[in-house]
Design goal:
The chain is mainly α and 495 residues long. Helix 8 packs antiparallel against helix 9, helix 14 packs antiparallel against helix 15 and helix 14 packs antiparallel against helix 19. It contains 19 helices and no strands.
Length: 495
């Protein structure tokens, strides 16, 4: 039964307004991951003169900081107050975007990206915490379904909004626009979101530091894998450090009285499967985003704005069908819902790989199928993770969802990017594939052989098709494991 203080929190604000506000804040921080990819060509051609490694880290610095701090930030929100941490996060997010917008060199851009990542880490988990406390128990499944849809739509919003801004302005304009939206969200959240009760738990500083270090090492390995090679010394060292630091984190968490995230929770196969499932959903989602923009621009001749708009069919199921998902889960159960979701996502990715040379309506239909898969999976997994932790640890629940989502996104871009580059190089004309080193991007290939434009675009399209099929295979295999784990978790809970 809810405490009197929690009941006052709930009735002090309209739950629909809280849901709309937290969904908007979520779409902002998730969408910024996708929007920055569209700014890469402008950054590459700018007076900053970034190297290819600089461009990679301009994109990924945000993701690294975001993912490694999101669980500790949720814990801080549980202790100090979620609304205060949310508002602080939005302010820091806006400040980081301004720093990047006015940056005179690459180093300052990277500082701004890191600051923005800190802000995003404070925003996302505390949105979940605020939403859970502001919503009556019988409405939480519905609210979480809508919030999960907002996190899925956020990537599309980033593509469309980023494309629109970049069509009329530069990469600096994009950062400025993001800062302005963050300030508007800050003003809205100040008025719309309630304060929740604080929980006097001791902050687990050693566990938090070890967790952050382990996630940073893991993400460095994932991000540098496609660039330096998965067997390179730097990448293997990063993965080894991640394993050692992760083991140290587990040992510390098992011994402290109030762990940031108790590893014993993962003995529940349902929670472990839900976390893996969230990572797989966003593996496929952001792997698709990585391929889609270039495939539409190179393969179909779309402009940046058209490429952003071209992904919109993915959102149709999320916008129209999300409200029906809780009812489907109650009727058919979580395992059946997830099995259908992963099958649809896999089928959509495969269909997309064959539709790249077809008329756009066929391509759009494949995107709708993928959207159906995300529509079913995200709410089921979000509710499963939230249900595994008590409401007073809602910030941690939000952080866990966010961390697994960002890890899945980073891994999706890395794996899909590696497969795409390898297949692209293999399908290049002999004169280019035998060049030392062979070109890794369309721009490099066309610089070396401008007369081979058609052959280079064909090589890229075939590489993208191969990458989409590889992503589909990962989703299919991992999805089967997740459904099996979910079934085991349900049987264990029923005993």
């Amino acid at each position: 039964m809810a405490s009197l203080s929690e009941e006052r929190v709930r009735t002090g604000r309209r739950p629909g307004t809280v849901l709309a506000c937290t969904s908007a804040c979520t779409a902002l921080v998730v969408g910024f991951v996708a929007a920055i990819n569209l700014a890469v060509p402008g950054l590459a051609a700018s007076s900053l003169a970034p190297t290819s490694s600089d461009l990679l880290w301009i994109v990924d610095a945000y993701v690294v900081i975001f993912a490694c701090l999101v669980i500790p930030a949720g814990a801080v929100g549980d202790k100090l107050g979620r609304k205060g941490i949310l508002l602080t996060g939005l302010g820091v997010f806006a400040a980081g975007a301004v720093i990047s917008a006015v940056a005179p060199n690459v180093a300052v851009v990277l500082i701004g990206r890191a600051v923005t990542g800190i802000g995003a880490a404070c925003v996302l988990p505390n949105c979940v915490g605020i939403l859970l406390h502001a919503t009556a128990p019988e409405r939480r499944t519905h609210a979480l379904a809508v919030w999960a849809a907002a996190s899925g739509i956020g990537g599309v919003v980033g593509n469309v909004g980023g494309g629109a801004v970049l069509t009329g302005g530069s990469w600096r304009t994009l950062f400025g626009a993001v800062a302005a939206v963050a300030v508007l969200c800050l003003a809205w959240a100040t008025r719309a979101t309630p304060r929740s009760t604080r929980h006097p738990r001791t902050l687990d500083v050693p566990g938090s530091l070890l967790f952050v270090a382990a996630v940073v090492a893991l993400l460095i390995g994932i991000i540098e894998g496609p660039e330096q090679g998965w067997g390179s010394t730097a990448v293997l060292t990063a993965f080894a450090c991640a394993v050692l630091l992760g083991a140290g984190w587990v040992l510390v968490e098992l011994r402290v009285a109030h762990p940031m995230l108790d590893p014993r929770l993962f003995r529940n196969p349902g929670l472990g499967s839900a976390c893996l499932g969230m990572a797989v959903v966003f593996f496929g989602n952001f792997g698709l985003f990585y391929v889609n923009a270039s495939l539409l621009q190179y393969g179909r001749g779309f402009s940046v704005l058209q490429a952003g708009l071209g992904i919109i069919p993915l959102t149709v199921p999320l916008l129209l069908g999300t409200r029906h998902v809780p009812g489907l889960i109650r009727r058919f159960g979580v395992p059946a819902t997830l099995a259908t979701a992963f099958a649809l996502t896999c089928a959509g990715l495969v269909a997309l790989s064959f539709a790249s040379a077809m008329a756009y309506p066929a391509y759009a239909a494949a995107l709708v199928v993928i959207g159906l898969g995300i529509m079913l999976a995200a709410p089921a997994l979000t509710a499963q993770i939230a249900a595994a932790l008590p409401v007073e640890r809602a910030g941690i629940a939000g952080g866990l969802q966010s961390a697994t989502r960002e890890l899945g996104s980073a891994l999706g871009v890395a794996v899909v990017g590696t497969v795409l580059t390898t297949a692209f190089t293999r399908h290049l004309p002999a004169a280019l594939s035998e060049h030392s080193p062979p070109p890794r991007t369309v721009k490099e290939a066309l610089t070396l052989a401008p007369s081979e434009h058609a052959a280079v675009i064909e090589a890229f399209t075939r590489g993208a098709d191969t990458a989409l099929r590889a992503a589909a295979l990962v989703v299919l295999v991992a999805g089967a494991l997740i459904v099996a784990g979910t079934r085991r978790g349900r049987k264990t809970a029923a005993r």
